[in-house]
Design brief:
By secondary structure, the protein is α/β, with parallel strands linked by helices. About 40% of the residues lie in helices and about 15% in strands. It is globular and about 60 Å long. The chain binds NADP nicotinamide-adenine-dinucleotide phosphate and ligand F7E.
């Protein structure tokens, strides 16, 4: 049985990836960090009591990207076949407030993980996936962005991830480690962190519907993103590690939409009418330097990984709204549920 180690298992992607790998028969180990409140809501349904039951296939361990010894001892103890490095301070706006912490966890944390593999003499045994990002393109040098597009990051987060991207590539070249960068464009879901813009909108709408809030306060509404559906994106992470040769891949839908378009679709779907009645711009959410527009070219992943996303922008909005309305016990329009049933008759994740 193959063993996988996931850092960031309590996050959006980590939680989906854990479920995906369990469905593939893996024994899955996840790293979580200690917090003063529970931080396992996204994985509670796969943890249950299995920790102590014979035959359990999911285990979690305490560790931190800023603590090299915790990473070394976990890798030594678990001896995973594959490591998925998803842990990061992943919020771009917050990275301007905590640039040093972000660089430590996202840039040096990746180096610590790679060094742990190398120092333990496991470079020829472990395959490594690095959660790289479209934020590397920042002020875009070419449209659409592919693996060949030069990088120009625009935030401490982007710069930290640029280091992580290159150091991953360097360990591939220097030590022959099977190491891949997945350059993933924005991907969302009902499990998306509540402070990212899509989820802030869909959750805000559910709260307005429930009478809990009157307004949603947002920043730059003109920015455009290439938004996909997270479960499809985590499948590509696994696919990259199953190739003959380690390489880097762009994962994206190839469509771009503004925050305003997201608002229009979302408010139309819930029948609340004109979004402008409910949305106010608050300068607190502007960034010192912005990434204006991203659109990815994932032809290489289509060709080499046979990766083809099924969920388009309008589907994504509906799926996310249904999930947020359901969480507050409000009747759901249900089109999102229908899309999921039609497009994923054998879906491997248990909750949206
Ligand atoms: P997320 O929901 O913010 O999850 C991040 C995970 O990292 C959480 O489990 C978090 O733990 C953990 N973490 C943060 N700092 C840590 C530290 N110092 N030590 C150990 N764990 C730490 O992010 P996501 O959306 O799932 O994204 C997964 C990865 O892909 C991230 O590296 C992100 O930067 C990258 N990425 C995301 C996207 C996207 O659109 N979602 C696109 C491209 C790349 P807590 O739960 O305790 O906070
Ligand atoms: O912002 C604008 C904001 O925070 C998207 C991370 O997963 O994807 C994510 O980074 C856009 C930006 O995502 C608000 O200015 C307007 O232009 O949802 P976001 P992001 O910055 O693209 C990449 C690929 C990652 O790698 C990251 O880890 O929306 N925006 N108003 C807002 N953004 C937020 N968060 N909140 C607002 O109120």
């Amino acid at each position: 049985m193959k063993k996988a180690l996931i850092s960031g298992v309590s996050g959006q992607d980590g939680s989906y990836l854990a479920e995906f790998l369990l469905s593939k028969g893996y024994e899955v180990h996840g790293i979580i960090r200690r917090a003063s409140t529970f931080n396992t809501a996204r994985i509670d349904h796969i943890i249950v009591d299995e920790q102590h039951e014979p035959g359990a296939k999911f285990f979690f361990h305490y560790g931190d990207m800023n603590d090299a010894t915790s990473l070394i001892s976990l890798i030594q103890k678990i001896l995973p076949d594959e490591i998925f490095n998803l842990a990061a301070q992943s919020h771009v706006r917050v990275s301007f407030d905590t640039p040093e912490y972000t660089s430590n966890a996202d840039a040096l944390g990746t180096l610590r993980m790679l060094e742990a593999i190398r120092l333990l003499g496991l470079s020829d045994k472990i395959k490594f996936y690095q959660a790289s990002t479209s934020e590397l393109y920042g002020r875009v040098q070419e449209t659409p962005q592919s693996e060949k597009t030069p990088f120009y990051p625009r935030s401490p987060y982007g710069v930290a991830k640029l280091y992580a991207h290159w150091v991953t590539k360097n360990y591939r070249e220097a030590y022959n480690l099977f190491a891949c960068n997945g350059i993933l464009f924005n991907h969302e879901s009902g499990r998306r962190g509540e402070t990212f813009v899509t989820r802030k909108i869909t959750r805000g709408i559910a709260q307005i519907k429930a009478g809990l809030e009157k307004k949603i306060y947002l920043g730059n509404l003109d920015a455009k993103r290439d938004w996909g559906y997270a479960p499809e994106y985590v499948e590509s992470m696994w696919q990259m590690l199953q190739q003959e040769k380690a390489d880097d891949y762009v994962i994206a839908t190839g469509q771009t939409h503004s925050i305003k378009e997201f608002l229009e679709e979302a408010f139309k779907y819930t029948g609340l009418g004109d979004w402008q009645k409910y949305v106010e711009v608050d300068p607190r959410y502007f960034r010192p330097s912005e990434v204006d527009v991203l659109i990815g070219d994932s032809s290489k992943a289509k060709e080499e990984l046979n990766w083809n996303p099924k969920i388009e922008f309008k589907d994504l909005v509906k799926i996310m709204i249904d999930a947020d309305l359901r969480k507050l016990g409000i009747e759901v329009p249900g089109e999102g549920d229908k899309i999921l049933q039609e497009k994923f008759p054998n879906k491997w994740w248990q909750k949206d």
